[in-house]
């Protein structure tokens, strides 16, 4: 079956191909009545402009970009990103938008993709993850004028719209719970220290431990199971080893549980473990992991919704809309399970 073209629409409407292009791309040059007639004919013929033609016409691509500064293997082992992407897709599909996923090695490469996507009109907007305290990607996106939403705290978003949950509140809840069980030596195996949300967690952890008179130590990692296991082995080998460990993701918590068992420690009698971001795997372990739980899929839905609003606003006439506001999503809350208990003495 022959794919309909602009020439087919022009022939049936009795107008030039230029007039059809103006009508399809929302540009001036045709009367409202002619525009409506052309759009109706295009819809009836099943015409869909290809992305290259839309780019040449200056039309916004119905694609959202997501560049992740993580190794590709991350998607295979870390449930957070798959649940986030699932939520993004669920919302984007309601508007017939596609998600363009790109794994990158570092920020410079990510900024390069943003510039290429912008120059080629490949995407209509982007989502930014793992935002840092002073993030060069934010200033680059503002310079380009490419609609963007930061999945992270407003303090690091540099004026871009952001969606975030208060990790400080969640950290306080976890430490207060462990302290109430009687733990007085708590260690935290954190993620990458330069990330904005890691800094918020670190500050909250230090503050609540000082307030409760709890001995505290934070050791940064790269989020991997290997590094998490290495740090756990070092912490548990100390003379004054902690009686409770909080991990910044579930993968490191699972690795930590394995190390503890290898060392002959019983969880939770000898060591309590808390994982950040619950996942189905946390339920299947023995013992099942106590975790900080939130609806990551819904987080993705809300992030996509915020970006689509930012893209709609950027396409409006100047002065007709306001920048979408920041969204404060529900923070993670503690779900106690079998990996936490009062410390043995």
Automatic annotation (TrEMBL):
Cited SUPFAM superfamilies: lambda repressor-like DNA-binding domains (SSF47413), Periplasmic binding protein-like I (SSF53822)
Annotated stretches, region: Disordered: 314-345
Keyword Transcription (UniProt): yes
Compositionally biased residues, Basic and acidic residues: 320-332
Record-annotated HTH lacI-type domain positions: 4-58
Matches recorded under PROSITE patterns: HTH_LACI_1, HTH_LACI_2
Origin species: Nonomuraea deserti
InterPro entries: HTH_LacI, LacI/GalR-like_sensor, Lambda_DNA-bd_dom_sf, Peripla_BP_I
Keywords from the UniProt entry: DNA-binding, Transcription, Transcription regulation
Any one GO molecular function term: DNA-binding transcription factor activity
SMART domains tied to this protein: HTH_LACI (SM00354)
Official protein name in the record: LacI family transcriptional regulator
Keyword Cell cycle found: no
Organism superkingdom: Bacteria
């Amino acid at each position: 079956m022959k794919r309909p073209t602009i020439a087919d629409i022009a022939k049936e409407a009795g107008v030039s191909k230029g007039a059809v292009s103006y009508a399809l791309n929302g540009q001036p040059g045709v009367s409202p009545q002619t525009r409506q007639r052309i759009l109706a004919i295009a819809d009836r013929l099943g015409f869909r402009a290809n992305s290259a033609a839309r780019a040449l016409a200056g039309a916004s691509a119905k694609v959202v970009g997501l560049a992740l500064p993580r190794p590709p293997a991350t998607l295979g082992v870390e449930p957070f990103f798959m649940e986030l992407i699932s939520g993004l897709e669920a919302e984007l599909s309601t508007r017939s938008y596609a998600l363009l996923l790109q794994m990158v090695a570092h920020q410079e490469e990510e900024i390069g993709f943003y510039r290429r996507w912008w120059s080629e009109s490949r995407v209509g907007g982007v989502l930014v993850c793992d935002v840092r305290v002073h993030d060069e990607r934010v200033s680059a996106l503002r310079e380009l004028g490419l609609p963007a939403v930061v999945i992270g705290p407003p303090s690091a978003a540099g004026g871009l719209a952001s969606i975030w949950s208060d990790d400080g509140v969640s950290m306080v809840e976890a430490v207060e719970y462990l302290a109430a069980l009687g733990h007085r030596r708590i260690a935290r195996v954190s993620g990458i220290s330069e990330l904005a949300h890691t800094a918020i967690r670190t500050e909250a952890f230090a503050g609540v431990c000082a307030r409760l008179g709890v001995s505290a130590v934070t050791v940064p990692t790269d989020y991997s199971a290997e590094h998490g296991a290495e740090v756990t082995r070092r912490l548990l080998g100390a003379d004054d080893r902690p009686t409770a460990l909080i991990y910044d993701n579930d993968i490191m918590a699972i690795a930590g549980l394995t190390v503890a068992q290898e060392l002959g420690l019983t969880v939770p009698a000898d060591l309590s473990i808390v994982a950040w971001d619950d996942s189905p795997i946390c339920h299947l372990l023995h013992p099942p992991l106590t975790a900080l739980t939130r609806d990551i899929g819904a987080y993705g839905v809300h992030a996509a919704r915020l970006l689509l609003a930012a893209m709609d606003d950027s396409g409006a006439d100047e002065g007709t809309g306001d920048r979408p506001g920041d969204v404060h999503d529900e923070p993670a809350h503690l779900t106690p399970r079998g990996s936490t208990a009062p410390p043995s003495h």
